[in-house]
Amino acid sequence: MGDNSNESLTIIQGGKSKSTTKVRDRDYCFYCEIFVLNFARHLFRHHIYESDVQKIISKPKKSLERRQLIAALRKKGNYLVNSKEVTKPMRKQKFTEHLPCTDCLGFYSKKLLWKHKKKCTGKKSRNVQSEAQNLLIRHLKIDEKLKEKVFPRMRADKISLIAKSDYLICAFGSQYLKTHREQHFANVVSRKMRELAKLLIETKKIDPSINDLFCALRPNHYDTIVEATKVLGKYDSEKDRFETPTFAMNVSTTLKHCCHIAIMLALKKQGPYMDVETGKIEADLKTMVNLIESNWKYDISSQAATDLNKKKWNKVTIVPLANDLKILKEYLNKRSLEAAKSIKEGLQNIATYIELLETVYCRVLLLNRRRPGELQRITLYDYLESENNASDKYEEFDRALTVSERILVKKFKRVVIRGKRGRGVPVLFSQEVQDDIKLLLSVRNIFFTATSNLFLFGNPGYENTIYGYKVLEKHARLSGAKNPKAISATKLRKHLATLSQIFSMSENDKEQLATFMGHTNEVHKKSYRLPDDVYQTAKISKLLILMEDGKGDAFKGKSLDEIDLDMNEELEEEFLNNDKILDYDFESTVNVNSDCVQQIYNQNDLSQAGPSGFQKIEQISQLNVKNKINKGKKRTLVPWTVEQKNVVTKFFKLHIKNHQPPKRHECEKLKEKHGDLLHNKDWLKIKVFVQNIYSKK
């Protein structure tokens, strides 16, 4: 029987003979590059002089070592076939993706590869699937920096394999990485390469003649790319809108960059473009760029931009509650004290270190309202080298500062870091935070074996940083805040800029605030102002009501803020429906003005002017509203008699049982029935009394 023949078997069933043919699996020989039937026998017959075969022969027959050596050589041969199309996995499983082991070259199920890797090498590996996929494209000439920084971060699926295998997509990723050299941009490069790969996959489905992105970037394939973009943008032809308009808008810029890169590669005769007609390719690609610039806005961008704006129109702006910020701050201070105390007492485990590290990060973010990525990437060098002697440098400006401001300059450490678009943005560290960071640095060498982690908020045991937005989300949830989802870095930044409008700030002050937050003054006015839904409802509605009532002339020369409508009854109802209702009256009106606001911020500790400061500001605003209600009305507290309480409780027993406040006409009906008894109680006091009963106040 030869190597390439099948085995014939005769099976006797019930006295009748049945001839069948059993087809055995064949393996690919690494040496002669053909499929063979009996792999071990083929080796001993035809490749006995090979060093690996000699090593197999030296082992005893039927021994474990001999079988393992034959299996290793079998995997090595089958890898040549499986690297093109997986036909010989170690275990056949339907509808399962297979990837090779980087050590033994055997193909295993993608999901179970980690288990084999651990058994094969005896070690755990973090990026098993990425390493296996990178092995399949090791023969491609790709930028080594791209392989080292970006490829390990990419999810090991079909999309990533297409992105890694396409020369033009890799050239785009390499150029983008050279332009944006910061470490965290590796994730952005990965995302953009996957977007191009998705687009290429869709264009291949529409037109199978397209082989790669270089082939797709031809004028005759422009309509195909537009159609593929609509598929990826989830365009609904019936509703005439994009479900994901951002991708549809941004991919055109990426495609134009790819066209320019392809022209450069064609002119240089690099990679697979050595034999192309340079003049024709250059003309086609420039035509493609012109098509995108002139027609993309009509085919894609205009509709996508409209859909994107529509989503923002009725989006509710949520800012964190001042009380929640106070709860979070108290929680962070408490956890920081506990962690710092444990470290000082010698309990130097990694959990305690991370606890203090995360709480310090959240406290700095809460004070400065920085973007999480900017803050988490502060280097240890930048923090240590920043000097805190601003007052010594600018002694001539001392007279321009108040006493409390001079104290703050000395107390806070200022570190300038890289912000958005390369802008320098400052970060302030309070004295308490500086002490905690000093404690962290004193034990840093215990938890950081890798000297390559140069970040102040580095992740112990790894070379990256902590994930700022996840850390803030985690501690906001654990703090016990009523609405932890409202406490995010973006909402905190909007909270700061929005509440800053209640101050009488000069243009210079606004410019300094915008610079501190890391954006221009125009962006501050456009995006970080009082939300449109609040402004238009609260401010513009006053103007519309005056026009409707024909009272516009009465407020001639006044600003919208100075116009005060008579809304007493509605405001009383609003405060009565509030959770915090007490049966007391103001003895006199309280005058609150900008001096009170200034007093809050003239504290020695600037941290008091953070969340708690804003809480006081909101409380002051509420007092102002109440004062307008009670202006000119001096009321005194009149005690309730036992008989009055019994009558009201009995009359409104169903309201108390159902936790339902009585209406005005119901209270007046009770007063008519017991006029003499309730002569000193108006309907509003009766309503408040009933609410306080079922509220248990």
TrEMBL record:
PANTHER family: SET DOMAIN-CONTAINING PROTEIN-RELATED, TYR RECOMBINASE DOMAIN-CONTAINING PROTEIN. This is Uncharacterized protein LOC135193415. It comes from Vanessa tameamea.
